[in-house]
Amino acid sequence: MKEILSTIQEFEGSMVQTLCDLVDIPAVSPLNGGQGERKKAEYLLAKLNSLGFGSVEFYNSPDDRVECGYHPNIVARIKGRTARRVWFVSHMDVVPEGDISLWDSDPFKALVRGKRIFGRGTSDNGQEIVSSLYAAAALKEMGFEPEYEICLCFVSDEEVGSKHGICHLLEEEIFSPDDLIYVPDSGSLDGSFIEIAEKSTCAIEFVVAGRQVHASVPERGINACRVANELSCILDSAMHEVFPEYDQLFSPPISTFEPTRRNLNVQNSNTIPGREVFYFDCRILPSIPFEGIEELIARNVENLEKKHGAKISWTFPRKDIAPAATPVDAPVVTIMEKAIKEVLQVEPRVGGIGGGTCASFFRKAGMPAVVWRQGNDTAHQPNEFIETEHMVNVAKVFARIMCGI
């Protein structure tokens, strides 16, 4: 094992160059004005060939919104001593650069400054593409036959829902419940955190319809602003009181119900608004049923409609019910814990998060999966970057898992 880890360390320069090459190839969804992942997939195919990988599988998902007509998904394999498979699933697509004025350099031209690499997609998810690639390459370089079949999976479409990526591959039935599935898309700075669960999430849109009038004659109208304010305060308090459940697996260990966006109503201060639109963002512990939240909302909406004479509608622009957590004693977790301890010399900790990751698709399909990486949390930010030390460390942890524990 020491020889493989040493080989990975020697690969550092090549890993840096490969990540720089990936940054230089934008892979933005057509939903965000881009042309998809084809060029990046072609680069990775050439890189896999140069590193001695044999036949590489393509699972293309049709989409006439991109020029080539499809989103590519790549699977490269190394045969193991047993039939069991271990997957490393990273994504090729990236988000757009955002406000270019906030960047100190070209987002799609990698900049190496000291031990940092700057550019869109370095942290999300280029580092992990490179780490998994060179971890496997180190095994091939040393002629090591892994215990499990190693499957590198480079997917499309993660940033806009995974329809043409992981969901497409699940439909192709290339995964099995017995597989070990690692999704390196989130983590911590020291590499100790292993994500095994997510909260349910939703956005709730409320539309309050009152009656607009001049502010000097409020008795003639129905002030939608006042009704919206009252409803927001009532729900904020009631949801926290009715659903106080506590789960130490998550941080924070409670459900959160946050009033967030408020749409523009009237443009002048002497008009009572007749329409208000506002939103809640909710991150809900998996033990809490959505039906209970819907019942609470409906009851309070009905009370306020009767009180004020307004009409209130509400919908879920986004609703994602969390799947069951990956068990803490599942092999995919315990193997990762041992690799982290051995390579990084830190004590692993398992937990859940309030945000969503694409590992949820595997969990919903009954396949235990974990999310792990070491790195700075700069995804989607201007001046996104990674530390080369983290990239090398991630490759070493992956290689330890590939060798079998």
Give the integer mean of the pLDDT values.
96
Total strand segments: 19
Total number of domains: 2
Alpha-carbon distance between the two ends: 11 Å
Sheet with the most strands: spatial strand order:
1-4-8-5-9-18
CATH hierarchy: architecture of the largest domain: 3-Layer(aba) Sandwich
CATH superfamily of the largest domain: Zn peptidases
Low-confidence stretches: none
Order of helices and strands: HHHEEEEEEEHEHEEEEHEEEHEHEHEEH
Explain what the structure shows.
With 405 residues, this protein is α+β, with helices and mostly antiparallel strands. Helices cover 33% and strands 23% of the residues. The chain contains ten helices and 19 strands. The chain has helices spanning 2-10, 12-23, 38-50, 122-142, 166-171, 224-242, 290-308, 331-344, 359-364, 388-403, and strands spanning 56-58, 61-62, 70-71, 74-78, 85-91, 111-113, 116-118, 149-155, 180-183, 193-198, 200-209, 213-214, 256-262, 271-272, 275-284, 311-320, 349-353, 369-371, 385-387. The strands form six sheets. A six-stranded mixed sheet has the order 1-4-8-5-9-18. A four-stranded antiparallel sheet has the order 13-15-11-16, with helices on one face.
List keywords for this structure.
405 residues, alpha+beta, Aminopeptidase, Alpha-Beta Plaits, 2 domains, 4-stranded antiparallel sheet, 10 helices
Summarize the structure.
Helix content is 33%, strand content 23%. The strands form 6 sheets. Strands 1-4-8-5-9-18 form a 6-stranded mixed β-sheet. It has a 4-stranded antiparallel β-sheet with strand order 13-15-11-16, with helices on one face.
